[in-house]
Specification:
single chain, alpha/beta, 7 strands, Rossmann fold, binds nicotinamide-adenine-dinucleotide
């Protein structure tokens, strides 16, 4: 089920956390993997680990998703190495908290450039290759903070809401090329990004009390949803956002 043999997948922000979990899952299912992130050495080491663990081809390519030049180079190098691109997972993102009244224009621009412009740049560059083969799966990691408000995170909430509707828009435009575009919206997932929340026992227990499953999520919880969405079994699913949050936002 959900076989990805011979598929080529690029995962952004994949040196650690959710992105690494996604890369591992797709490699386990048979895909050739490009680990992309802001640090070449860490990309290489995550790729080497995955290649050895799952006996798959995996390479690391440095790419800041907010730079068009680096994004174009990422896609070009991927196609040079593997001959095609089937799957793009837009996972790279930054979380930034500051009260609205203290926000600067620079704070706002930085978050929007990585979290939202990055998804646009990577999706457009990837779709150019996917269109050539009339095949493609694009999945972006949004957030429940794109559906409900989260305190002191104006730009983050706006960027993630932007991803959810950009997903719908791109799904409409790319359907004629047999490209599916979907999103996964995580709740609280244990990664370096959320370490400070989980380590603050008082805040963590308060948060858990609002989550029906009464636990934090793990990168594998998100990877499982992404695995389905990038598979051929999800061919008729497009423009959707699957919320993976242990029920946090249903009550
Ligand atoms: N952890 C959570 O609870 C949670 C919840 C909702 C959404 N998310 C989203 O999941 C995604 C992964 O987050 P995570 O929790 O694994 O965090 P993380 O900080 O562990 O990983 C994010 C990765 O993105 C990379 N990155 C940052 N800026 C980049 C850039 N400009 N170009 C390329 N890569 C860049 C980082 O280097 C890092 O490796 C993010 O988009 C985040 O917003 C996380």
């Amino acid at each position: 089920m959900f076989d990805l043999n011979d598929k080529v997948a690029v995962v952004t922000g994949a040196r650690r956390g959710i992105g690494k979990g996604i890369a591992e899952k797709l490699a386990e299912a048979g895909a050739k993997i490009v680990i992309s992130d802001i640090d070449q050495e860490e990309c290489d080491s995550a790729a080497a680990e995955i290649a050895e663990r799952f006996s798959r081809e995996a390479i690391g390519i440095k790419c800041d998703v907010s730079s068009k030049e680096e994004v174009d180079s990422l896609i070009q190098k991927t196609v040079e190495r593997f001959g095609k691109l089937d799957i793009l997972v837009n996972n790279a993102g930054i979380f930034f908290q500051k009260p609205l009244m203290d926000y600067t224009e620079e704070d706002w621009d930085k978050v929007l450039q990585v979290n939202l412009k990055g998804v646009y740049l990577c999706s457009q560059a990837a779709a150019r290759e996917m269109i050539k083969n009339s095949y493609g799966k694009i999945v972006s990691v949004s957030s429940i903070a794109g559906i409900i408000g989260y305190p002191d995170a104006a730009a983050y909430c706006a960027s993630k809401a932007g991803i959810i509707n950009l997903t719908r828009e791109m799904a409409i435009e790319l359907a004629k090329h047999k490209i599916n575009v979907n999103s996964v919206a995580p709740g609280l997932i244990e990664t370096p990004m959320t370490q400070h929340i989980i380590e603050d026992q008082e805040q963590f227990q308060k948060t858990l009390a609002g989550i029906p499953w009464n636990r934090q999520g793990h990168p594998s919880d998100i990877a499982n949803a992404v695995h389905y969405l990038v598979s051929d079994e999800a061919d008729y699913v497009t423009g959707q956002t699957i919320v993976v949050d242990g029920g946090w936002t249903i009550q």
